[in-house]
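User: Round two. Same drill as before: sequence, then structure, for each protein.

Assistant: Same drill it is. First protein:
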Amino acid sequence: MGEGDSALATWTIHPAEQYAYLVEARDRVFDHVRRLSRAGYTRKFPFGHGTIRATLVHVADTEWWYTSILEGVVAPEQRSPFRPLSRTGVGPLEAEWRRLAERTARALRREADWDRPVEDWWTTKNWKRGIKTTAGGAATQLLFYEVHHRAQVMAMLRHVGTPLQGLDYSLLKWQWFKKTR
């Protein structure tokens, strides 16, 4: 081990614990999204996936794919349960994502080899596409991807008059205190 490596060697937060933070923050997003009218939920924006609904469905759909990759389920005939939810209200999306969250947490807890190679291939109309990474790479993408799109949803919520702040990991997971001098 080189100088400075010891901090990395003692870091023990498991991806399943990190995922639990995402679920907690997601619950707070849904608390705000449930307050929206259908017009607010589907209002067009020039960023993200264009609407709060489309952005959330996209993130859930992508989490479903990353979880499938971690589980070794890469059959092209398997289809995400989230795509049809791009035409529904928030309730069905939230319910289906809660089911997926249990599956995702289980997949993260079960992973024993973060260096395990994983790949997925699929065919489009014009070409065959694929990815190659590791189980750790898929888990990392799963964790960070939602944070990226959650920030877009938070910006959209502000524009529809339902601002949401305070979802930073340190605010939700750290213990904060004050001492008088």
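Second protein:
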Amino acid sequence: MGREIRKVPADWQHPKNEHGNYIPLFDGFNESLKDWDEGARQWDAGYMEDFRFFPESNDRHWKPKPDEPEYQISYAEWAGPRPRKEEYMPDWPEEERTHIQMYENTTEGTPISPVMSCPRELARWLADNNASAFGSMTASYDDWLAMIENQGFSVSMVSTPEGIQSGVQASAGGK
């Protein structure tokens, strides 16, 4: 959790509440709904997700639910409620996602930049406006650009023997 690029239409305006604050929105409604529904189906069949690392596969893995009282609840009680569309960014068709915007995703997700047309423009805006890479830490143009062009996301922060770095700086190899 930290910073991530979200592809949006050129005219995207992230919604705000009655106080003018951004309304946090998750990304990826269709995928989240599909995952939740599969989890509920497996739960009802007596299985739960196995979160061990399976390097040979990107598929989800399932194991039998223990026969203990704390597992004799509904899937919604276990995993939380089924995703609701209004809590997510719109799932635009890919051809409409022509621009990018930087989001913080420590919560559900709110924008920390305007909508931009390309990575260089976004990195320049983030650096020139001292956008938060983590807390009060900012990042250089080169660090923002490297993060945007390489993986498109970063963790909030990284602790090293030299101290704490923002995830943006660490993912870009910054010092």
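The beta strands are 2-8, 47-49, 62-64, 99-104, 110-111, 153-155, 157-160, 163-166.

User: Perfect.
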